[in-house]
Amino acid sequence: MTDSAFDPRALAAKLRSLRNAGKQASTAEFPLPGDHRQAMDAQNFLSAEEGIRSNAWKVAMPADNQPVTAPLHPYVEAVSGAKLPWVAGMKYEAEIAVRLGKDLPIRSGGKYTRAEIADAVADAYLGVELSWTAVAEGNKISPLLFLADRLANLGYVLGPALPRSILDTCTGTPLKVTLNGQPIYDATAQHVKVDVLTWLADYANDTFRPDSSLRSGAVITTGSLCGAIELASGGELDTTLGDARMHLSLTQ
Questions:
Q1: Is-contact 226 93, C-beta < 8 A?
Q2: 164-198 in b/e burial notation, b at 16+ Cβ within 10 A?
Q3: CA 45 to CA 135: how far, in whole Å?
Q4: Per-residue pLDDT in tens (0 to 9) along the chain, 252 residues
Q5: Are β-strands 174-179 and 235-241 bridged in parallel, bridged antiparallel, or unpaired?
Q6: Angle (deg, nearest 10), helices 36-49 and 8-21
Q7: Alpha-carbon radius of gyration of the chain
Q8: Given its phi and psi angles, is residue 185 left (phi above 0), alpha (psi -120 to 50 degrees) or beta?
Q9: How far is CA 191 from CA 17, 23, 99, 182, 247, in A?
Q10: What one-character-per-residue DSSP string does 224-246 give?
């Protein structure tokens, strides 16, 4: 239940404890943030407790149309050989990530066009996000609680560089994912918004985001190309998007 005396440090500590134990709790067991600011305060305390230092970010647009972001952690840059721990209930997402080559400062007059967003992208990559949340119901009851829990991010591996043209041509590209040699996705890449830059553009045009956000060098992941696929076990995970390939190991 939302409390007028909401303590973001207490929520962050509870989320951190559950994450460390690989356990979940129902929404009713958490102190709930009352607004976006309180949720971000809790997320920032959680990130501090986790010692996050990477400049890599997840962007999304919940049902309330308030663009949101969360740091990606643990964050690894590796075409192959990356190792991350597997957790029961963990989900997999193949994504396109971009590295900004220009700052995108908050623009008070007018909005960034898609062309301007694309022009700010220095490099594009194939990436894999691993997601898991300490909230048993995920974002179904309290999107603000989900935001506090770093939008369920539990790891990210930045893989091979891709042509920047992938930003325009990604939809329909063959995508195959195998876990221990068994296919878990074998179809074409499909972003829920079709255009992989949609959520980055939404966030860039949010005048309430921090002044320090979206600076040159930041890595931004743009959303799943295959939905969220639950991983029944750890093991060897291989992703192929067009001609690009990456491998990572999930340890149990």
A1: yes
A2: eebbeebeebebbbbbeeeebbeeebebeeebbbb
A3: 17
A4: 445 689 999 999 999 999 999 999 999 999 999 999 999 999 999 999 999 998 999 999 987 789 999 999 999 999 888 999 999 999 999 999 999 999 999 998 899 999 999 999 999 999 999 999 999 999 999 999 999 999 999 999 999 999 999 999 999 999 999 999 999 999 999 999 999 999 999 999 999 999 999 999 999 999 999 999 999 999 999 999 999 999 999 998
A5: antiparallel
A6: 50
A7: 18
A8: beta
A9: 33, 30, 19, 23, 22
A10: ESS--EE-SS-EEEEEEETTEEE
Both tokens assigned to 120: 């700010």
Q: Six-digit token pair at 195?
A: 């255009």
The predicted pLDDT at position 2 comes to: 47
Is the separation of the CB atoms in 27 and 18 below 8 Å?
A: no
Helix, strand and coil percent figures for the chain, each rounded to 5: 25, 35, 45
Can you tell me the distance from the alpha carbon of 156 to that of 93, in angstroms, rounded to the nearest whole number?
Answer: 10
Q: Calculate the CA 74 to chain-centre distance.
A: 11
> Do residues 175 and 94 touch, judged by C-beta distance below 8 A?
yes
Contacts of 176 (CB under 8 A, 6+ apart): 183, 185, 186, 239, 240
Q: In one letter, which amino acid is 79?
A: V
Residue located via tokens 């490099």: 123
